[in-house]
Design goal:
Elements (H helix, E strand, L loop, with lengths): L1 E6 L3 H12 L4 E7 L3 H10 L4 E3 L2 H6 L4 E4 L6 H10 L3 E4 L7 H14 L3 E3 L7 H11 L6 E9 L9 H4 L7 H17 L3 E9 L11 E8 L4 E7 L8 E6 L2 E6 L9 E6 L2 E5 L6 H13 L9 H20 L3 E2 L5
The chain binds NADPH dihydro-nicotinamide-adenine-dinucleotide phosphate.
């Protein structure tokens, strides 16, 4: 059995991750930690979790094997390093930290402690993205030359908190959504980006100088170029992901989301074909891979290195937006 402790009484844990742990035959949620004792107790009660703590050390002293970190982003570093030092496996939310340098510290701490580190980039687990990756790897679109990601959403009212008001907590759409697009592009294309150019905006939702919209242009190792759009303020945009190759195009719609929904169409000289794909819950699949990694039978869906990569991309995008220049993506890995 893998006994999990939750660090952070968060929305994402309540909506997806607690269920995903419990969906594993060998997964148990045994404790939750919140900075507030009242919220910890209420969260534990509402979600049927046996133990509630309001200090990190108390949680790490409990009889747990792994932690899931879903606090606000400025807290991930300290919590992940402490958990690793306590010998707990770490599944951490994205961004792993506020800078890629700090993310590398988490990676180093987990390596030194011999514990598994995973980054919860859920989109890699989507059947749609796996079908696209497989189609590309199988040569179905020839040589991929360009990609487009549409990932501008409307931030629901209940989430209009730190993401749009607190730069010090790692708010802003780039750390929130561009990191996912970076990871999904790398996963689907099977190659790494080298350079990014970005414009960001404050379209009326985010305050405190934070961005709530971004458009990025990416260059990949092979010479492929990509564009991505991330936003909090567009109610009716819909999401999508396209990859265009010399012999065909993959056109996915409604796939940049937490649910196993959407469609993927392969368009070639012979016409259009709707690709069928696995509709398993993304987080359940992520947890299954993480449990397998604990048993040394595989890797997490997205590793710590993948988390460093996505954060390095986001960092480069923010630097580009600030300077008005294209920025080389450096992971330091
Ligand atoms: P929440 O705002 O729901 O929770 C973050 C923290 O805010 C909690 O740890 C909690 O602190 C505090 N908090 C929550 N509710 C309240 C409240 N009513 N009053 C005061 N404080 C409160 O964040 P999300 O769940 O949206 O995001 C958490 C992390 O997960 C982030 O790193 C985010 O980037 C990531 N995320 C990842 C997603 C994915 O699909 N991979 C999707 C959504 C988020 P405390 O624990 O101290 O109580």
């Amino acid at each position: 059995t893998v006994r999990w402790g939750l660090i952070g009484a968060s929305t994402i844990a309540r909506q997806f991750v607690i269920d995903a742990i419990r969906a594993q035959a060998d997964g148990e949620v045994v404790a939750v930690m919140s900075s507030s004792p009242e919220r910890a107790a209420a969260y534990a009660r509402e979600n049927g979790i046996p133990a509630a703590f309001s200090s990190l050390n108390a949680l790490l002293d409990a009889d747990i094997d792994a932690v899931y970190i879903s606090t606000t982003n400025e807290l991930h570093l300290e919590q992940a390093v402490a958990a690793a030092k306590a010998g707990k496996h770490v599944l951490c939310e994205k961004p792993l930290a506020l800078t890629s340098g700090d993310a590398r510290k988490i990676l180093a701490a987990c390596k030194a402690a011999g514990v598994v580190l995973g980054t919860n980039h859920h989109l890699r687990n989507a059947g749609a993205h796996r079908a696209m990756r497989e189609a590309i790897a199988a040569g179905k679109i020839g040589r991929p030359v360009a990609a487009r990601v549409f990932h501008s959403v409307y931030l629901p009212e209940h989430l209009q908190g730190w993401r749009i008001t607190k730069p010090e907590a790692g708010g802003g759409v780039v750390l929130d959504i561009t990191v996912h697009d970076a990871d999904t592009l790398r996963f689907v294309l099977g190659e790494d980006p080298v350079e990014i150019s970005a414009f960001t905006q404050s379209a009326g939702m985010a305050g405190s100088g934070l961005e709530d919209g971004a458009m990025c242009v990416w260059r990949f190792q092979s010479g492929l170029i990509a564009q991505s759009h991330e936003g909090f303020t567009t109610k009716f945009a819909g999401t999508g992901f396209e990859v265009h190759g010399t012999e065909g195009s993959l056109i996915a719609r409604g796939v940049m989301t937490q649910k196993p929904v959407g469609s993927v169409t392969l368009r070639t000289a012979t016409g259009e074909e709707e690709l069928s794909f696995d509709r398993e819950d993304l987080y359940t699949r992520s947890l299954r891979a993480f449990h397998a990694a604990i048993r040394t039978e595989g890797k997490p869906s997205a590793t710590g290195e993948d988390g460093v990569w996505s954060l390095a991309c986001a960092e480069a995008a923010l630097a580009s937006a600030k300077t008005g220049r294209a920025v080389t993506i450096e992971t330091g890995l």
